[in-house]
Amino acid sequence: MSTPVHVAVVYYSSTGTIATIAKAMAADAERAGAQVRLRRAAELAPQAAIDSNPAWAENVKATADIPEVSPDDLVWADAVIFGTPTRYGNVTAQLKQFLDTLGGLWQSGQLADKVYSGFTSTATAHGGQESTLLALYNTIHHFGGILVTPGYTDPTKFVDGNPYGTSHVSGQGDLPVGDQTLTAARVQAERVVKFARAIRAGLAAES
Questions:
Q1: Alpha-carbon distance 174 to 172, whole Å?
Q2: Residue 39: which H helix or E strand, with range?
Q3: The whole model's pTM is what?
Q4: Which stretches make up the Flavodoxin-like domain (predicted)?
Q5: Between the CA of residue 162 and those of 2, 10, 29, 39, 204, what are the distances in Å?
Q6: Most buried in the list 81, 98, 99, 155, measured by CB within 10 Å?
């Protein structure tokens, strides 16, 4: 039996929306036959800011058992799915700081030839979902990574409508993750595993 592909789901979440999607992505990837590491980016915000928002404080407590991401998780992975809420149409500082620590791995070529994908959330439908994912994907081009996005490759994608990656409109935290977002997460995770498996098999055949 072939060795399962390795998928790292790496995310930052403040009030819990992205954490919920990340957990769903990890479970979906496991059901698709992958070995999965679920990892969170380290929190940079001061405790006073966290405590000022009950949902933020609750999410910090609820996800304390999830390990923080390290560069070794990306070395281990055949595929990486990044998750981040939007910050003015861009990735969060917390995830960006982790990405900025990867210079050594990038220089040594250890981030290349892996599958990458992303997901996000915004307060409103036009709050930066596409620009956030495109900004994230600019980093992947520098890695020499292989982008695997959901596109419109499944009938359900014509319902949620975002070919760049799973996205959720959270309002002011009052719009919980529902079936539409979870279906999009499943489609994306399965597609990532499918192509990670194919690419790894192809590279192995060439070596």
A1: 5
A2: strand 35-40
A3: 0.97
A4: 7-207
A5: 33, 20, 20, 24, 33
A6: 81
